Amino acid sequence: MAQTEEQPEKHCWVCFATERDDRSAEWVSPCRCKGCTKWIHQSCLQRWLDEKQKGNNGGAVSCPQCGTEYHVVFPKMGPLVYFLQQVDRALSQASPFASVGVVVGTVYWSAVTYGAVTVMQVVGHKKGLYVMERADPLFLLMGLPTIPVVLVLGKMIRWEDYIVRLWQRYSYRRKLLPGNRYLPRVPADGPGSGDHLSVSRTLCGALIFPSIASLVGRLLFRQVSSNLQRTILGGIAFVLMKGVLKVYFKQQQYVMQANRQILNYPERNADRQHEGGDEDMEDSGNE
Amino acid sequence: MAQTEEQPEKHCWVCFATERDDRSAEWVSPCRCKGCTKWIHQSCLQRWLDEKQKGNNGGAVSCPQCGTEYHVVFPKMGPLVYFLQQVDRALSQASPFASVGVVVGTVYWSAVTYGAVTVMQVVGHKKGLYVMERADPLFLLMGLPTIPVVLVLGKMIRWEDYIVRLWQRYSYRRKLLPGNRYLPRVPADGPGSGDHLSVSRTLCGALIFPSIASLVGRLLFRQVSSNLQRTILGGIAFVLMKGVLKVYFKQQQYVMQANRQILNYPERNADRQHEGGDEDMEDSGNE
């Protein structure tokens, strides 16, 4: 044989068998490697490839020594298999987008439903149905889902914080006038710790607002006969009441922060227990 | 003063000012530290605490030297502030759960709607509405959302894979009989690469199935007058057709994998270009 003249003997770098061990085995030299890693049994390389690919049969695999990509040839299949392969690939690529569509559709449909329920809640059940049945369907499909969106956006306007800031600026100036030296400390981060916008709280607050407005309207404005007017009045009353309470609360939190005092460590007890024990104190403190 | 007898002079470990620099400043000894880090101005410690807490005013802060937690006292506020604080805390704790409820409600409501649309699609628009209007509302609210759930669960039963595996076992046994030595390789991970369950594909396939069943029913079983029967027949026909194609495709993929061949690296070209360049080859391969 020609190969045996070039090289002393083929041996497989996976199973270490030589040509003499199994004369019928199929040999392959799949990469640019020379010497002892040049030859490998076809069956050993297949097993090694299976191990490397771990079921992901599409991926390219290279020789770990020389980096040459193995040239793998598959038997030609018919046009039906090719067609099915293309369909399978197309479905796999399209399904994530379709899933996003399902999620968006779910959210959209819930927004439409929420909008319709809100309309019925605000103008009354029968009148709401009547209004929506007479309206343009396209207008409803566009308009109803904007109701929760507008509610959430409206909830994100934090006008109470603005008023708190205005108040603090004003009260600070007034305190400057009498000329007292000891100004209260101005807390670092403005009004209190509840300043950061909580997503879940904003969402829930916005979605429950029409129900609260309807409830407050029924409690406070019984004499108003129109459902719409009563709910709007209830909503305004609730927003104002909540705003006043929130401004008051934030201002009080601010005052609390501004007037905090850090107390002395109880000196006498400590001195009696550890007289002259400076080093002990520092040791125990560093633990 | 008693302090000046014990220690030579107070000085603040933040601003390094001594008692003589500002006789009116308030001093505090907030921790177990002795010596030069014992005393600090109240105002300096407040500034340092603000810096440490960075707006998170609730957190405890300790002395960086001895580890003693500072004892911070806030002025007593009225019962209204306490009440508002409790309400604020309760709302903050409840809002994540409420948000989860909103998400669950959204999914549930979409499932109800999907179920209703599917009923109307399967038994016909008018008859579907008639059936649902006469049914118990509680039964509808429980039954309709189970429709998409059952569809998805049904889609997760991969009976085609089972048939492919049966087929492969059968054909493997038959190939053993003739006594030929060269069995085709058995791919490592069973039938093909599309074996892993894709969430998005399962979901979309399950949700679109009633539409496909209705379409196939209308195309293949025009003579059937009942909407329900036609759609069921269409669904069965589609599942069977798809199953046969899928089994065929997976089997062909398996055969393709089993009969792959790894080719020799084009030996002669490489030899001519780099005669005796074993080391060069390995170097370039390792890049």
Protein topology:
2 copies of one chain form a homodimer.
Chain A: H1 2-6, E1 27-28, E2 40-41, H2 42-53, E3 72-73, H3 79-123, H4 125-134, H5 137-156, H6 159-176, H7 199-220, H8 227-258, E4 261-262, H9 267-273, H10 278-286
Antiparallel strand pairs in A: 1-2
Notes on the protein architecture:
The structure is a homodimer of 287-residue chains. The first copy, chain A, is mainly alpha-helical. Chain A has 3 domains: 2-53, Herpes Virus-1 (2-Layer Sandwich); 92-156, no CATH class; 158-263, no CATH class. Helices cover 63% and strands 3% of the residues of chain A. Chain A has 10 helices and 4 strands. The first copy, chain A, has helices at 2-6, 42-53, 79-123, 125-134, 137-156, 159-176, 199-220, 227-258, 267-273, 278-286; strands at residues 27-28, 40-41, 72-73, 261-262. In chain A, helix 3 crosses helix 4 (125-134), helix 3 (79-123) packs across helix 5 (137-156) and helix 7 (199-220) crosses helix 8. Strand 3 (72-73) of chain A pairs antiparallel with strand 4 (261-262) of chain B, so a sheet runs across the interface.
